[in-house]
Amino acid sequence: MKPEISAHAGFGIGLRTDHYSDFIEHGVPVDFVEVISENFMLEGGRPLRILEQVRTKYDVILHGVSMSVGSACGLDEAYLVRLKNLAERIEPLWISDHLCWTRTSAHNSHDLLPLPLTSEALDMVCRNIDHAQNILGRAMLFENPSSYLTFPEDEMTEWEFITAMARRTGCFLLLDINNIYVSAHNHGFAAKEYLAGIPHEQVRQIHLAGHTPGPIIIDTHDRAVADGVWSLYKEALHFLGPVATMIERDGNIPPLAELLDELDIARSLAGCESLQAVS
Amino acid sequence: MTSLAERQFQFMASLLAEDGDPLEASSSKFDAGLGIYRNNYRTTLIEALSDTFKRTARWIGEEVFHQAAAHHVIINPPCGWTLDDVGAGFDRTLAELFAKDPEVSELAWIEWSMHRAFGAANAEPYTTGDFADSTAAFSDKDWGALCLDFIPGISTSLVHHDVAAIWHACDSDDVSCPPYSLNEPMACHVYRDGEQPTFITAPAFESPALNAMVGGAHFGDVLDLLFKLRPHESAVADAGAMLGRWLNNGFIVAVRTQAP
């Protein structure tokens, strides 16, 4: 049985290189920061030293992009060992990754690729999650992906898939509200039905991010959170209650103050007060 | 092979293919989505190369660099979990593409080696005092059996161009200059100084010497190499000066003797 992950109702942002000095030299009014695990799965050098410094002041979440729990070839054992070593060093609030696949036994796409929503894929994902959680010795969070295509062999909805995955593995969920918005638009399902259909008690974190509009919406994380995503966040809070929420920006990184303003919108929608900067 | 495995191999093959052939029996909607993944794949890898090889890109021009990077990811699709490895072999790709401009691959080799050094394990370099203490009681035989442990991430190669001048030209965006050919090759050592990757040039004999000692050779083997190149006394003096440079630059982290 994996340890339970306690609920955390704080607000945070993704730690990006542009803001390292803000976090180390000043007090940034966040309850946690999230980092991309792979950027710190190194032997040594500056990134690890920075992360350890940040960790002395803030709770940290390790968010991965390369576990590839949807891969039919299984997980990369060397990757898991490196991730475990990093987790032991940083003692994160939790470790998360994505419901997707990135690799075959021969190649790695370095992109979050969509899975056919079939019982075969579900079995594979559950086996891989069980293995990862056993190696890491802890339960993980998995994030719903955004996607640009569906497969003709799909047998269930994404929320049915995620519900079964969480029930079978005991994993928790990182709900990306923007990804629901993007996929709902791209595939023509009702985002509210998605929100209603997931196991709410398993959600431990929410991601909010921006996207690029178009006939197919692209999940670019390079602009402010869209109005429609804020509305959906409000809907999600109705189902979930207080839950750790963060702004995720990966491109066109703005000054930190801009992201903190967005985080204040999230706080306001959740009925929470803004934190004051501690310098 | 399961149908999921088959599906993933087909999907990956479609991402990796140079042209964008649709998957068998796919719909136009599926193909439109697949096109986005193909574009994401290519863009991510080329951006990773651009981040790692900033000066090489400045030296050859952004557009040409983009074409070279696209060529590299087509012929060397990534295998490992880390994007950091995408630049492996890019200097060799550039050596083929720019056979008449060999300074391009030398510059790329330096950037790649610095990239590797950036995340290498931490280690405390020996000071000259540490070294003096460790070797104070050495006999001639001990010197011959001397082995050195080097700072993680160090690498060396021969260069045939004034790479320091090219580096600074790239920094100042003054890339219209000639390729700075050297009359004789030099060694170029890449390492991390504290947290900062850097490189230095040195006499050419240091490159095979450093490579040999990183690979576990004894100091006596290096002396034998030098004796073949120059008179005995000069070789001993050169070897001593080389050790001094390595110490002063923080290359050495441990000293031990090991019977040949």
Automatic annotation (TrEMBL), chain A:
InterPro entries: MbnB/TglH/ChrH (IPR007801). Gene3D superfamilies: Divalent-metal-dependent TIM barrel enzymes (3.20.20.150). It comes from the Bacteria. NCBIfam families: PRK05409.1. This is DUF692 domain-containing protein. It comes from Sphingorhabdus contaminans.
From TrEMBL, chain B:
It comes from the Bacteria. InterPro entries: DUF2063. Pfam families: DUF2063 (PF09836). Residues 7-90 form the Putative DNA-binding domain. This is DUF2063 domain-containing protein.
